[in-house]
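Exercise 4. Each item below gives a protein and its sequence. For each, produce the structure-token representation.

Item: Dienelactone hydrolase (Candidatus Promineifilum breve).
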Amino acid sequence: MPKTNLSPAITYLAIPPSGQGPGVLVVHAWWGLNDFFRGLCDRLAGEGFVAAAPDLYEGRVATTPEEAKRLRGLPKREPTNQTLLRAIVELRANPAVVGPNIGVIGFSMGGHWALWLAQQPGLPLGATVTYYGARAGDYGNSQAPCLGHFAETDEWVSPASLKKLRKSLEAAGRVADFHTYPGTGHWFAETDRTDVYDSQAAELAWSRTVAFLRRQLRPPEL
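Answer:
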């Protein structure tokens, strides 16, 4: 990990009422670190996790795809992958975090990055969750089981890309549990995307996510 003089990578941190818990890194979609993703960290804290979110857009947020495309292309103080790697180090070192490994949850663009992190050697990842984000590659270095939530109709994630992801995970012998939610589209789990939000599918995906994280991360004594 290269040393930098940058500010901390973690922008938003939510601690559970108990004051400690397994760590979970939340990687936002291309909208930026908006109220939904901050609220997601709070929900995770309410479930007993220490949830942390880096701001990959350095304070900027988008509400339309056009704005999001522009923000995604703007110059950054450091590459996104380095920000995420620093965030993992910071979260793992937080005294509120218990257990040897942390989890990562990513949405859309963030899901793509969560799967990139899952491919990197030597990271303390014990669980990977992707919401409608797919990324094929070499998962031979991954030790983290994967949970995926996907829309039935998705103009951003093709059936071919999802098939490639499945094959990549299978080739590496990784455990993967994928769910497709009928009648949904991309961003179906995000409450602020009112045109596509599906409350029933979102709550089912949430309950599966929490159960998965507890199973993979929670030490027996907690």
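Check: DSSP finds six helices and seven strands in the chain.
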